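Loading example: each entry is read as two labelled lines plus one structure line.
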Amino acid sequence: MSSAEERSKGALDRLYEFFCSIKLSLFCLIALALTSIIGTVIQQGRDPSEYVREYGASTARVIAALSLHDMYHSWWFQVLLALLLVNITLCSIRRFPHAWRLMRDSDPIFEGRSVAMHEKWERTVKGVSVEEVARKAEALLSQKAGKPVRAERDGSTYFLVSRGGWARMGVYVTHFSLFLFALGAIIGSRWGFKGFVEVPEGQTVNTILLREGGVKPLGFDVRCDKFTLAFYNDARGVPTERVRAYLSDLTVLEGGREILRKQIAVNTPLIHRDIYFYQSSYGQRAGNGAALSVMGPNRNLIVYESRIDRGGPGLDLKDGNVLELLDLTANLRETGPAVLVRVLSGAGQPVTRETVVAAARGGPTPVGNYLVALNGVDTTMYTGLLVAKDPGVPVIWAGCILISLGLLVAFFGSHRRIWLRVSQESQGVRVLLAGNSSRNRIAFENRFRELTEAAGETFGT
Amino acid sequence: MTNPINSTMFGIAMVIYLLATLFYIVYLVSKNRSVGLVATFVALGGWLINTAAMGVRYLESYKAGYGYVPLSNMYESMTFFAWAIILIYLIFEYAYGYRSIGAFVAPLGVVGIALVSLNPKISSDLQPLVPALQSNWLTAHVVTCFLGYAAFAVGFAISIMYLLKKRSEKAYGNREGALPPSKVLDELSYKAVAVGFPLLTLGILTGAAWANYACGTYWSWDPKETWSLITWFFYAAYLHARFTAGWRGNRLAYLSVLGFLAVIFTYWGVNFWLSGLHSYAG
C-alpha cells in the first residue's frame, strides 16, 4: 500500500471512528437537550410580526434566519437528530455481533478464550475419579442453576449453564425503536394532515380547512346533530357554571346514507377512515333569520319585530316595497349582532343601497326613507372540530411497545453464566466453579454463593 | 370552609416526614443503629398517612358527587410526588441499607408537601375535573411521570452526597465518615437513575398516547412535552456516559444534578415561567 493510500485509509478509519464514538452520542444528546430549550423560551410558530414586537427588528431577523421560530422542523435540528441516529446505527453494527455471539455461546470449554469470570471457587477432592465428580457436578448444576451443556477435552470435563442471554438484546431493541419513532414521524408529516372545521348544529360539512391553508375534501359528510354544554351540579343538584363536558352528536354519511353515529367529547374523538375528529371548540353563530322593526318616513310604525329569513322573501313594507335580508352575523367586529339589508321595489329593483343595521348603534338605522331597527338575530351553536389523519401512528405505537420492552429487558434482564470444570491434578480431582453476569452483580453474587455452599457440601474435601 | 380531612392528613404526613428527617440526621452523625431504626419507622409511618390521605381525598371527591383519581392539579401531584419520593427511598433503604441517605431525601418529602400546603396561591380544594382531564390516560401518565421524577429526586440527593463526600475525601482522605464511601454513592445514584429512566420514558409515552386521543397529535413540541424530552435527553446522556463512556466521579454527579434541575423546570418552571397549553396543571 502506498503512503497516500495508507493516509486515505487512515482518514476513512478516523471518520468511521468519529461517527461510531460514544463522545458523538453524548454530544448529540446534550446538544439536543440544550437547543430544545430555545424553542420553549421563544414561542414557536407565531406570526413574524409578533417576533418583531417581542424582540425588536434585528433580533427577529436573526430568529428568522436561524429558523428559531420553528426550530424543531429546522434543517439544523433535523441534522442533529439524523446524526444521533447514524451514530446509533454505526455503534450498533459494531457491537451487535459480539453481543450476539455472547448470547449464543454454548461452548463450555473456556481455555484459550477471553472470558471474564467475576466469581470463582475452587476445591480439590481426593480419592475419587473425574467421572464420579463430573456426575455429581452435573446433578448439582441441574438442581441449582439449570441443565448444563457438557464437553470433554484432554481428560477434563466442562459444564456451562447459560441463562437470560436474550437480556443482551435489550439495548439493540431499545435503539431500534427510536428508528420507528423517526419513521412514524416522517410518514405522518408526509402523508398525514391536520385541519379544522366548524359545523353548526343541523348542518353538514364535507370539507375541512387545512392548518397550512387550503381546503381538503373529506370524501364523506359529517353532520352535527346537536352540540351540548354539560355543567356540573353542586351538592344540591343545581347546575353550576363549571363545564362538565363539551359534547357533539355527530353523524357520518356516505352517499346520503348514515354510516356512523357517535357522541364525541374532549377525550373521545370520532374515527372514520383513519380520520380523527376531535372536540376542540364551540361557539355561537348567526342562524338563518333576524327579527326587525321598520318605521316609515313619518316615523309611523310599519312592521314590528317581524322575523325574516336570509335570502328568503322580504318584509312587506305595505307600500309596494320589500325589505330584503341579505346577510347576518352574531358578532360584527366584536360589537354584537348586525344584519345587511336592502329595500327592493315590488318589481324587484333595488330602491336603496345595501346597508348595515347593527344592534350596537342603539337606535334605528336609516335605510333610504325608512328607519330599520334590529331586534335580534337567530343564533345557532356550532361545534369546532379538529380534524387529523396520521398514517404514522401505528409505527409510533410499535416503537412505544418496543422501547418499553427493550428498556425492561436492558435494565432488569441479566445474562448469567456458570462454568464448571472437573480436571485431574496430582493431588486429586480439581473442581473449578466460575460465574459471570451481565447485570445486577449483587444478586448474582448471592446466588453464586448459595451454589458454592451447596458445592462444598456435595464434594466434601 | 373548614379544612377537609385530606389536607389535614397531608399536613400531618409532612410533619412526620420532618420528624423522620431529624432522626435521620441524628443517625447520620451518631451512627446509632436504634436511631436509624426509629427514623425508618417514622418515615414509614408518614408514608402510610400520606397514602391514607390520598385515599381519603379520593373518597371525598366521590362524596362531592364527581369522583376522580386525585392526580389532577398542583396540590394533588405534589403530594403524590412526596409520597413517591419516600416510597422509592424506603425501597432503596430496604434493598441497600444506607440510612444516611434518608437525611438527604426525607427533606425532599417535607418540601414537596410544604410547597403546596403552605402556599396561599395553591388551592387544596377539591374541584371537579375539566373536560380535558377526564381520561384514564391521566392516571397512567401522572403516575409514571411522578414515579420517574421521584427516582430522579432520590438520585439527585445521592449525587449531592457524592459531591460532598468527594470533597471531604480530597481534604481528609478516605476516612470512615458520616457518608457512605463515594464508590457506593456513585453506584446507588446510578441505580436511582436506572429506575427513573424507564418510568420517565413510560410517562412520556403515555402522555403522547393521551395527546393522540385528545389533541390531534401525539407530539406537538409544547413546552411541557419538550422539557420532559429535555429531561429524558439529559438522563440518557447520564446512562451512556456511565455505561459506555466510562464516566465516573464528579462529572457524572453534576450530570445527575443537571438532570434533576431539568425535572424541576419541567414540573414547575413550565407552568409558572413559560406560556403554553399545559398551564392547566396549576
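The CA atoms of residues 238 and 244 of chain B lie 10 Å apart.
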